[in-house]
Amino acid sequence: MGTPFIALLEPTELPWDKALPPSEQPNVASIPRTFVDAMTVRSQVFVQEQNIPQANEFDSDDPRSAHWVIYASVNQTITPAVTDPTTGQIIRPRQSSTQSVPIGTVRLVPFPHPPHPVQDGVYVDDRPTTFHDGIEPYVKLGRLAVTPEFRGRGIAGQLICTAIDWMRKHPSYFDPSPAERGFSHLGMEQGGALPPRWNGLFCCHAQADAVKVWEKRGFRVDEAMGTWMEEGIPHVGMFLRVDVEREVTPV
């Protein structure tokens, strides 16, 4: 594998048919390639490997989220070498090609969010938990996925760190009006009071088996959130707070 590189797709309209896998999307030509690659990885990991229904993988948060996809340069054989069966000498050498293959993805969902879940998966009005006062806006990292053959190489950590670093450098990115950033579908009134600005708080709803991956990047389990089930998989809430790099407004 060559040196991986990471692509970013900022929030954009996505004409995605949630009932179909990436390879069968009818509007694929009008969908950003980065998102198609993100969904290819997500489909492989969540749908094929974890048996999550295809129709549940794409949701209303995808168009308003930022997505990162990490690629690896993989050398693939196009035509195998041909050897003389008598002497073993190569008659025609192997032909190969290096291609960029999507191997991992993560998304960052802006505030606002649905209320925190509680033990056993019942959603209630937003409430204080161990690391969240129930009011402060936070951004949520999720849909973290790495294809099986590339796990154990720090790929997930690279994706998490890239998303965190980007948000630290763009702390006001999701601050505009509800209509501009898709808040209205969660019930916020246009023209109403905007929520306080983001101040460095990250959240993730981590699969229980992936807690250590997030802990390595500084996230801590929010014990007050308990454990709940999503798509038949146990999840826990985790939070991380970072310092943000506020833009300086010229006087």
TrEMBL record:
**Where would one find the signal peptide in this protein?**
none
All copies of domain N-acetyltransferase, residue ranges: 50-243
> Its domain of life?
Eukaryota
CDD domains (UniProt xref): NAT_SF
Q: Which residues form a coiled coil?
A: none
Task: Cite the GO molecular-function annotations of the record.
Answer: acyltransferase activity, transferring groups other than amino-acyl groups
Q: What is this protein called?
A: N-acetyltransferase domain-containing protein
